[in-house]
């Protein structure tokens, strides 16, 4: 969620609406905004504090010291403005909810697409290996893939990991990583690992000893 989701004066109004619930210091307001936006938007202190100062100048908020922190509290004039703009606040919250849902859907779709691509590549590699003729003197059982297939599989997994990790880190840096992403990623990875394990067969003694 980008700050542009707020039109002119909307963030100021949203902050005032939050303070109508209870007095808060600046960091609490930032955290509350992040929670309301499902972690998809977290304003910087440089965004929030100037607006709080403006609200104080307009007599809509008062600031008082609470130890080392400054707590901001809405005034009667501020409450009157919130009541007057209640419909605007409700519409803004609806727009925020819709934006958060769309972003969550987009991130889930990117994870699903990446996993489908990986599964398709693995299936194609498996099909190609099965289509190769038997080696001379070999059995009719499963055929071993040539060394280059192992290298290609390693490159495929590395590229997949780097691409998806970059997408997730970018979303997290923007504060736009929905909570649903981790469960979805874990579910798809477990399913893919189970499919590949079924093709590879039992783990070798060497793999077992390595894990001991």
Plain-language structure description:
Residues 206-212 have low confidence and may be disordered. The longest helix is centred in the middle third of the chain and has 46 residues, at 86-131. The chain has eight helices and three strands; from the N terminus they run αβααββααααα. The radius of gyration is 27 Å and the shape is elongated. It has two domains: 3-84, Orthogonal Bundle (Arc Repressor Mutant, subunit A); 102-133 and 144-202. Helices cover 67% and strands 7% of the residues. A hairpin with a 2-residue loop joins β2 (61-66) and β3 (69-74). Strands 1-3-2 form a three-stranded antiparallel β-sheet. With 212 residues, the chain is mainly α.
Strand and helix layout:
Elements: H1 10-19, E1 24-25, H2 26-36, H3 45-57, E2 61-66, E3 69-74, H4 76-84, H5 86-131, H6 147-173, H7 181-200, H8 205-211
Antiparallel strand pairs: 1-3, 2-3
- Biggest sheet, strands in spatial order? 1-3-2
Mind describing the biggest β-sheet? 3 strands, antiparallel
Q: What Rg, in angstroms, do the CA atoms define?
A: 27 Å
Task: Say how many strands there are.
Answer: 3
How much helix is in the residues? Answer: 55-70%
Report the order of strands and helices: HEHHEEHHHHH
C-alpha geometry: elongated
Q: Into how many domains do the coordinates divide? A: 2
Strand content: 5-15%
| Straight-line N-to-C gap | 45 Å
Low-pLDDT sequence parts = 206-212
Average pLDDT metric = 76
Total of helices: 8
Give the structural class: mainly alpha
């Amino acid at each position: 969620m980008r700050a542009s989701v707020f039109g002119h004066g909307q963030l100021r109004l949203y902050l005032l609406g939050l303070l109508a619930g209870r007095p808060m210091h600046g960091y609490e307001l930032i955290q509350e905004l992040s929670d309301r936006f499902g972690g998809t938007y977290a304003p910087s202190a440089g965004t929030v504090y100037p607006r709080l100062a403006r609200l104080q100048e307009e007599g809509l908020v008062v600031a008082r010291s609470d130890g080392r922190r400054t707590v901001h509290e809405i005034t009667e004039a501020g409450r009157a403005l919130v009541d007057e703009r209640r419909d605007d606040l409700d519409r803004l919250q609806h727009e925020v909810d819709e934006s958060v849902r769309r972003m969550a859907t987009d991130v889930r779709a990117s994870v699903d697409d990446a996993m489908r691509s990986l599964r398709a590549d693995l299936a194609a590699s498996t099909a190609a290996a099965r289509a190769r003729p038997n080696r001379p003197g070999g059995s009719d059982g499963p055929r071993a893939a040539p060394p280059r297939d192992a290298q290609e599989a390693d490159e495929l997994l590395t590229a997949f990991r780097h691409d998806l990790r970059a997408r997730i880190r970018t979303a997290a840096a923007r504060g736009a990583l929905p909570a649903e992403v981790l469960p979805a990623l874990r579910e798809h990875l477990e399913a893919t690992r189970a499919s590949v394990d079924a093709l590879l067969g039992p783990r070798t003694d060497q793999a077992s000893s390595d894990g001991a």
